[in-house]
TrEMBL record:
Pfam families: FCH, PK_Tyr_Ser-Thr, SH2. GO terms for biological process: morphogenesis of an epithelium. It comes from Drosophila melanogaster. This is Tyrosine-protein kinase. It is an enzyme of class 2 (transferase). The gene is FER. Transmembrane segments: none annotated.
């Protein structure tokens, strides 16, 4: 059934128009989608080209020469590039398809108009006749009524008139005849118009309308045909199974298939083939013990009362390890052989048929046999140590153990020179040195009681008089000692030991070793400090003598303190003895104490600081508002958690070490460090507004552009100063800046800073603030001040976005990827154009194209000036 017979009604005609409108809309939608698809495909082609280019950035140096895998990869990437080009071509063709759709839509619109006009035209004639019939009918009715009335009148007059004549009757007759004539004429017109209407209606229904509809159907069907062809074309350009792609895929498969594991290293092995390596020789260095009388023998274990427990423990551990190795081997063999251990401990192949299966089975056998060999080696190595210890213990048998503890030997064993290599011996010894000094002191009532309680006066041996007690003033107490070259006779000094050790000017608390080494510059310079090892506190005498030497103060069984010489009741006395006697601390080191080095200005005492309230939480511990007892100054104090390992504590103090040398209004100031006891602390100026990031977020409504620019200028001033000092901050971000009164910004948090022109990170990049870090630092670990410039750009963005998170909605790795392909964050709302331009300059991919802080400062300063003048 076609349009001509089925769609004649008015409703069908209207529905056909509506349908055509809908089709036009569908066509528009298709056009938009195909346009979008073309755009997507183009972008995909661009990304794919980038992927291929990235993939081709491979090492072309000699190392991979002859490698099939490298060659295949290159071909693979080339094919990817072809694929990208094909995608691009197809995308362009899709755009042509879109144009065709546009034309079709225009034609269809015209056809719709023509149909409507034609339909209206033929319908108009019929409508006109219909109206005519109605009109004629009403005329007919009107004349009929007139005729009837006149006829009645005429009949009345005719009856009444006696002679059937008269003027009145003639008049009525005349009117009656006229009306009769009119009626008959109207009747005829009515009849004619009905006849015409019948004819026109018949033609409309049987000829004109069907003709129009039939034509319309054929027009619409031809549009559909064109439409279908266009869609077919569109689909064809998106067909991923098209021959072109198949060919590319086939070539990729072929190049990858050409990788052959057995040939991969052929050329390489040929090039580097060498004869097997000669064994390394490990020999006991006899010179180590040439000065040590008796007990320590080369390549022989020493068994005595100092070592026997340790040896037994070690033996147990090693035997356990041997058993462990054996069990693991048995399990492995059982597992591979399907649960049945085999007598000779070998692995039997259980075979597999498929080629992949054979390969993976072969690999897994190879791996298991390698693991098994590794376990056997481990077992053998441990067994060797077990035999050696057993043999040594057996030799001693039930005899009383030799004492390792005659005075000379004890001292030799307990002094640590140039490092803490005797740790194990110390902690396992049965004699008192095994206990840390602080533990020992605690056991006997604590350091303070012990040291305070004595109240001794210690006189220089060679100087009989005077025995003046040392003043409690800190100022240069030891420094008042005259140089040794001067007559000893003229030097008279005495020592009062009734103060705690930590009050001595030359006691530096837990100052890290790097700092200690920095303080001791000339032979004979010395200081005393504390070190915490394995949660045990030890007091160490550090001396500059042919390098730096560190001696642990030993505690005797009676609770006295000593090095190689006689014991003393307090550490102060021991140190004074060494100083006055001019005897070497140990014979081997020859180190003589000449000049005590006192605490520096910034080495505060923990008791100088009163912590008031917590104001923040840092990476290492809480941050407090505090008061300096001496000056009543409000300060900020960063504390370091006691439980952190030494390495972390050193890192914590790094910030203090760096800050110590800087003095700039936009760099947070260091007041001191407290390392006399735990927790170690860094004391800094208190910056009242706290962290910039929090400040921005809290005050997002009240900040003016002028204030934001001022913040940028402050940060640039601080960074300009740091750059001039060759300091790379490495963690510049709003969270690491502080805000003071008047919105002034200070750079803080120097935990990651380095004082170098260029700093290359080699130990992994675990805690890197990725979204703030320049690409060259992320990709190659290379840090310069220009990396700080990149971070400064992000800081500017944070300031203008009032504390938003950069690259929000992206993970670190996504942000990194996008930056590498040229993406940069858009400008935050209401940022002055020049400031955004500056941000973009800071984010130049090539570090050398970024401005230095000097330039940044000048630009921001000039912009502020301009702004101020314009108001
Ligand atoms: P960390 O370097 O250990 O991560 P931060 O320097 O980030 O520690 O300090 C943590 C928080 O303590 C900061 O966000 C800030 O709120 C507060 N804070 C740190 N230093 C000061 C200071 N000098 N004045 C005021 N508040 C500070």
């Amino acid at each position: 059934m076609g349009f001509s017979s089925a769609l004649q009604s008015r409703a069908a005609h209207e529905a056909l128009i509506v349908r055509q409108d809908a089709e036009l809309r569908l066509m528009e939608t298709m056009k938009r989608s195909i346009q979008m698809k073309a755009k997507c495909d183009k972008e995909y082609a661009i990304s794919l080209t980038a992927v291929a280019q990235q993939g081709l950035k491979i090492d072309r140096a000699d190392e991979m020469q002859g490698s099939l895998i490298s060659k295949s990869w290159r071909s693979y990437m080339d094919e990817l590039d072809h694929q990208a080009k094909q995608f691009k071509f197809n995308a362009e063709q899709l755009e042509v398809v879109c144009d065709k759709l546009t034309h079709l839509s225009q034609d269809k619109r015209k056809a719709r108009k023509a149909y409507q006009e034609e339909h209206a035209k033929i319908a108009a004639r019929l409508n006109h006749l219909t109206d005519e019939v109605v009109r004629k009918k009403s005329e007919y009715q009107k004349h009929l009524e007139g005729y009837k009335a006149l006829r009645t009148r005429f009949e009345e007059n005719y009856i009444k008139a006696p002679s059937r004549s008269g003027r009145k009757l003639d008049d009525v007759r005349d009117k009656y005849q006229k009306a009769c004539r009119k009626l008959h004429l109207t009747h005829n017109e009515y009849v004619l118009s009905i006849t015409e209407a019948i004819e026109v209606e018949k033609d409309f229904r049987n000829v004109l309308l069907p003709g129009l509809l039939e034509h319309q159907q054929s027009v619409q069907e031809s549009f559909i045909l064109l439409w279908r062809n266009i869609l077919q074309e569109a689909a064809q350009y998106g067909d991923l199974t098209a021959d072109k792609y198949k060919e590319i895929q086939k070539r990729i498969d072929t190049v990858i298939g050409s990788i052959n594991p057995t040939e991969e290293y052929g050329e390489f092995t040929e090039k580097y083939k060498t004869s097997p390596t000669t064994p390394l020789l490990f020999q006991f260095d006899e010179t180590l013990i040439q000065d040590i009388p008796g007990k320590l023998q080369s390549s022989t274990l020493t068994v005595d009362n100092l070592t026997v427990d340790w040896l037994r423990n070690r033996l147990q551990e090693l035997e356990g390890a041997v058993r462990d190795c054996q069990e693991k081997q048995m399990k492995m063999i059982e597992h591979v052989n399907g649960g049945s251990p085999v007598a000779n401990g070998s692995i039997i192949s259980n075979g597999s048929n498929t080629s992949n299966g054979i390969q993976s089975n072969k690999d897994s056998l190879c791996r298991q046999s390698k693991d098994l060999n590794a376990l056997r080696c481990q077992e053998k190595q441990k067994q060797k140590l077990v035999d050696m210890i057993k043999c040594a213990l057996n030799e001693v048998g039930c005899e009383e153990l030799p004492s390792g503890c005659d005075d000379d030997l004890t001292l030799e064993q307990n002094f640590i020179e140039n490092g803490y290599n005797n740790e194990q011996q110390r902690s396992n010894s049965t004699s008192s040195p095994g206990l840390g000094i602080m533990n020992e002191l605690m056991r006997r009532g604590g350091v303070l009681t012990l040291l305070r309680g004595r109240g001794r006066h210690f006189k220089r041996k060679s100087t009989p008089q005077p025995a003046t007690p040392m003043t409690r003033s800190r100022q240069g107490r030891f420094n008042k000692l005259q140089p040794r070259s001067q007559s000893l006779g003229s030097l008279s000094i005495s020592l009062s030991t009734n103060r705690p050790l930590y009050e001595e000017e030359w006691f530096h608390g837990v100052l890290p070793r790097e700092e200690v080494v920095r303080l001791l510059n000339n032979d004979g310079d010395f200081l005393v400090r504390e070190t915490i090892r394995n949660e045990e506190s030890q007091i160490v005498l550090s001396v500059c003598w042919n390098g730096h030497k560190h001696f642990i103060v030993q505690t005797t069984g009676e609770g006295n303190f000593r090095f190689e010489g006689p014991p003393f009741a307090s550490i102060q006395e021991l140190i004074m003895h060494q100083y006055h006697s001019e005897l070497p601390v140990t014979v081997k080191s020859g180190a003589i104490l000449r000049r005590p080095v006192c605490r520096e200005r910034w080495e505060l005492s923990n008791d100088d600081v009163v912590l008031l309230e917590r104001i923040g939480r840092g990476n290492f511990g809480d941050v407090y508002k505090a008061k300096l007892k001496s000056t009543k100054l409000d300060v900020a104090v960063k504390t370091c958690r006691m439980t952190l390992p030494d390495e972390q504590k050193r890192k914590f103090l790094q910030e203090g070490r760096i800050l110590k040398q800087y003095d700039h209004p936009n760099i947070v100031k260091l007041i001191g460090i407290c390392v006399q006891k735990q927790p170690i602390m860094i004391v800094m100026e208190l910056v009242l507004g706290g962290s910039l990031l929090t400040y921005l977020r809290k005050n997002s409504n009240g900040l003016t552009t002028r204030q934001q620019m001022g913040m940028c200028r402050d940060a640039a001033a601080g960074m300009r100063y740091l750059e001039s000092k060759n300091c790379i901050h490495r963690d510049l971000a709003a969270r690491n800046c502080l805000v003071d009164l008047e919105h002034s910004v200070k750079i803080s948090d120097f935990g990651m800073s380095r004082e170098e022109e260029e700093y290359i990170v080699s130990d992994g990049m675990k805690q890197i603030p990725v979204k703030w870090t320049a690409p060259e630092a992320l990709n190659f670990g290379k840090y310069t001040s220009l990396c700080d410039v990149w971070s400064y750009g992000i800081l500017m963005w944070e300031i203008f976005s009032k504390g938003d998170t950069p690259y929000s909605g992206m993970t670190n790795s996504r942000a990194r990827e996008r930056i590498d392909t040229g993406y940069r964050m858009p400008t935050p709302k209401s940022t002055p154009e020049e400031m955004y331009r500056l941000m973009l300059q800071c984010w130049a991919a090539d570090a050398e194209s970024r401005p230095h802080f000097d330039e940044i400062y000048n630009v921001v300063d000039a912009l502020i000036l301009r702004l101020d003048n314009s108001h």
